[in-house]
Amino acid sequence: MTAEGTNTYNCNDLGFDGVNLIDEVVEVYGSPVYIYSGSIIEARASEVKLSFKGLNIDILYSMKANSNPYIVKFIYDQGLGIETTSPGEVYIALRAGVPPEKIYFLGNSVSREDLSYIVNWGVNINVDSIQSIQYLCELGYSGEIGLRINPLLGSGYHPYTITGGLESKFGILPSEVSRAFSLASSCNIAISRLHSHVGSGIQDPRVYLSVLEVLSELTKRLPSVDELDIGGGFAVPYKRGEPRFPWSEFASMLTEAVERLGLENYKLIIEPGRYIVAESGLLLARVTDVKVRGRKLIVGVDTGMNHLVRPALYRAYHEVIVVNKACMEDEVIVDIVGNICESSDVLARDRLLPRIEVGDVVAFMNAGAYGYSMASNYNLRLLPPEVFIYKGKARLIRRRQRFDDLYSLVVMDE
Known about the structure:
By secondary structure, this protein is an alpha/beta fold. The chain folds into two domains: 2-37 and 278-407, Lyase, Ornithine Decarboxylase, Chain A, domain 1; 106-272, Alanine racemase (TIM Barrel), CATH 3.20.20.10. The chain is built from twelve helices and 21 strands. 46% of the residues are buried.
């Protein structure tokens, strides 16, 4: 296996970025285990940055996709800012060494307490509701903020990933902007940025242009605005043969739109998260059980929906490779199931794979985004370790959970 900006494989090579997946990862760190390729993260960040030469644009990494501090710092070192959705993410970004001025916060259903942390840490603030502006007023904040606008349109690969539209919980409606502006002005808060995010898994660049047009129209009523953030959600090819998001085409269309809308003096912002890290990550697991169910095999592994919830939550697809049998002929139809006591704990359905046996190692591909960051201790299963692979070396960036960790926050009456 090789990694040169994408997950591509040579079946005779069990390596990933020059590291043998079985001998140098599974045998050393155990299974299940998350691994990430630094070279793929570099390639994705470079691809996005180079697409926008000539445009006044900032690129923020949306760290909810993968919040490991080592990876956040690695991405910041590629020249990206960091977009966060909670005080916890802000805290981790700061601890990772990202300066406050390079961190942007935007949460939803945000509490007054949440905002008190954000204000004290001095990061850039976007708000999702008029109530959040009221909280900032109560906290005595006087500075600049951004407004998240719900442009009454949404897009995404699953209903749960659509974040715009009249029934969406996110953002301030265009009809509410005047009230938001009045409240902010009464507290000496300046609105300098308009933000929008309409969904995830978006392949068509025209969606972002539609968002930009809505924000552009609102700038006519908000003279203090000089930044327009059109969000993230750029599609990732999870299946072989799926198209990659057309960055060059998008950059050309965006340049034309900026000129057409007269936005040359505005800074633009985009927020790729999944696109930067998804292809970099693999979840490796060992086969623990094989059951025959008619013409199909039910293959049990030592991981589950607690470690990779996307298939259960979104019916998401992750390609599966049997690492130690990658050169063997595909001959059996299998469902790969996890070790969680839920019928929905199916990681892959109806896959044609080599004949699988107990002890084989399988890789769930494109698991670098919304894998570990959405993982849980459901059924009190331990969280796996995370390993970063770069320039032929593997390093542990988060250890495997221990049983003691499950009890560390418990308070018992003696």
